Amino acid sequence: MEIKPIRDEQAYREALREIAVLMETDPALGTPEGDRLDVLSTLVEAYEARTFPMDLPDPVEAILFRMEQQGLSPKDLEPMIGKRNRVYEVLSRKRPLTLAMIWRLHTTLGIPAESLIRRPAEH
């Protein structure tokens, strides 16, 4: 089983093709094919993390995403942000989040604090 690091686009595409073939056979864990699939997947994941890094969303995008996930309305954010007009100011990027708001959004909705403390994107 010769496996090499993925260093370029061609090796990346080849690894993806081989993963697709292996996944069709659904190899059992601990078999040579299963081990190969595991190692190739790990290499592809490492290559993608280096080549296509994903940045955290800005705070408003993180809040809107969680609202969509949980079917929340701006009214549902009032306990975490304040009165409805303040919620709308935050969601429209007219008012920054305070530390207290960040803490409540993080603990109540589980939004990563790292996303909430970022500077909002200019829209």
TrEMBL record:
Transmembrane segments: none annotated. It comes from the Bacteria. InterPro entries: Antitox_HigA (IPR039060), Lambda_DNA-bd_dom_sf (IPR010982). GO terms for molecular function: core promoter sequence-specific DNA binding. One of its GO terms (biological process) is regulation of DNA-templated transcription. Gene3D superfamilies: lambda repressor-like DNA-binding domains. This is Helix-turn-helix motif protein.
